[in-house]
Amino acid sequence: MPKSTRLLTLTLAALTAAALPVAQLQPAHAEQPPSPPGLEWLCEGGGPIPAAELVNRVVSPACSLVGRMVTGPADTRGLNVRVPEPGELVRAFAVKPGGSEVLTVSNLDGEIRTEFDDTADGADTADTADTAHPDDTAHGARGTEARHDAVAGPCEQSAYAFNHGGRGFPSLRWYYNSGSAARAGLSVAGAREAIVRANRTMTDVRDDCGLPRPDGRARSEYLGDTRASANIDSGAGCTSGFPDGDNTVSWGPFDSGLNYLALTCTMSSSATEQIYEADIYLASNRNLTLDLPKKGCSRLWDVEAVATHEWGHAFGLGHVDEETNGDLTMSPAITSCDTSARTLGLGDHRGLDALYGAPSQPGSRPGLLDWVGDILG
User: Fold this and answer.
1) What is the Cα–Cα distance from 323 to 296, expressed in whole angstroms?
2) Pick from 236, 260, 243: which is nearest to 100 by CA?
3) What CATH code is carried by the domain that includes residue 363?
4) Domain count, the chain
5) Least CB-packed of 73, 162, 312, 329 within 10 Å?
6) pTM listed for this prediction
7) Cα–Cα distance between 262 and 253 in angstroms, integer?
8) How do residues 238-261 score in pLDDT, each as one tens digit?
9) Is there a cis peptide before residue 2, judged by omega within 30 degrees of 0?
């Protein structure tokens, strides 16, 4: 299964007059120092900044980039976030048929770091013909031979990954725009129940493996219905309204050509490395359903399975390697016509245990690669 990963890094060191001795302060009318040759465009026009244009560059721009849009794909379409305020880190997780994209932009003490990770397993692409994959009628059967090349099954696959330095979101109080489910043609009550169950799977650490429940678990409180929407738009962006103080789940369409099933935006503090806000946006026009057919299923995705994966990101879990741990809920790809991601595997359980309680098995916590959001097996 082909897998491509691009980690794009930008560090922008900003110099301020307050950091200089008084004798060195420039007159008020003096011009700002220019950006290094070749990067003057960063301060021109205020348009989107493709992360691919900024790989392996360190600059001191003559302007503030806070609020500017940063896009993952080189063509500036698709996943995008805004450069956050100093001391903040924003991350967008988009799951799509056959893989995921993750875009991170942090503003840490005046340094801006941008990373983009595109992971695909080559299966279940939205542009394929309407023919069932080998596992299309095997939903609910985790660990079968039809499910990727993963070794063993979900109760033996033990990898886990952290986001935002491994501090999680210990107390998540959230709202749900239940009326927006009508955009997807779904039962309002049924969609609400599926999303609430998905949230409780993470807080109750419900798995398929008979593992003991951890002593420490994330806490969550559903605050009820809202007319507000997640601060995520149809162009797959965490909008300028994020964060707004509320954690919101809602439904909405993605633009033509953007084959995302769902998108989660998280914000954390660079000082505490702890998530303090998360919004989740579920695709109303990408074949998400509450009832998978038992036979003849093709290119349909289970709402609760997708929502459980997205809640994992909100609570601090990242992606594991698809080839070696593809049966876990937090694998990058969610298989069509499959409900198995509704409940957790061993690695998912261990990750939540490590975030919020004592480790359930011996082993070290993830390091730098885990902060990026991907364990390589």
Assistant:
1) 26
2) 260
3) 3.40.390.10
4) 1
5) 73
6) 0.80
7) 10
8) 999 999 999 999 999 999 989 999
9) no
